[in-house]
Amino acid sequence: MAKASDSKGKTLAAAARLFRQQGYHGTALHDILATAGSPRGSLYFHFPKGKEQIGEAALALSAEAVRQGIARAAEASENAEGFLLQIVRAMASDLERSDYREGCPIATTALETASQSEVLGKATRNAFQKWELEIKRGLFRFGMPAGDADLAATLVLGQLEGALLLARTYRSLEPLRRAEHAMKLLAHIRGSE
Predict the structure, then answer these.
(1) Could you report the per-residue pLDDT of 153-172, keeping only the tens digit for each?
(2) pTM for the model
(3) CATH (domain of 101)
């Protein structure tokens, strides 16, 4: 039984990575199987509804990993600025480590599928909403009023997503460095009120 769940986990990890690199439509089932080293039969055993079911589960896996990273950044920080900078720097590190092939684990699939698949659209919306909520929690933790933290969380997530897109496109960390500066400004504007 451990082997079966290992096969499922490998398949999901492979799908998540491939969707992040080349998108949902750019990833075929045989690509996922080859990357995971899983037999074709295990794919249909674990995911009888096919690629869309794999996509939904892979997006949930990626979304939860990022959400946990945001929560850890809040726990490890002493103030809002440190919290926001940790998030940006973790994303920059991931992007650079992948040689600019892996930006946001949700964005590529969201842009491709949100209007075409209710299942994948819902999975991408859930991911972004969970991230916004976790950012809001972190900002609230450091003294930002709930209403302001809600607005700031949307601003932060939008800034991060845009910076990741530009950094990946330019093959440069400069947009993320600018995002760091924007996060510092946001933290200081809020702190000076």
Answers:
(1) 999 999 999 999 999 999 99
(2) 0.91
(3) 1.10.357.10
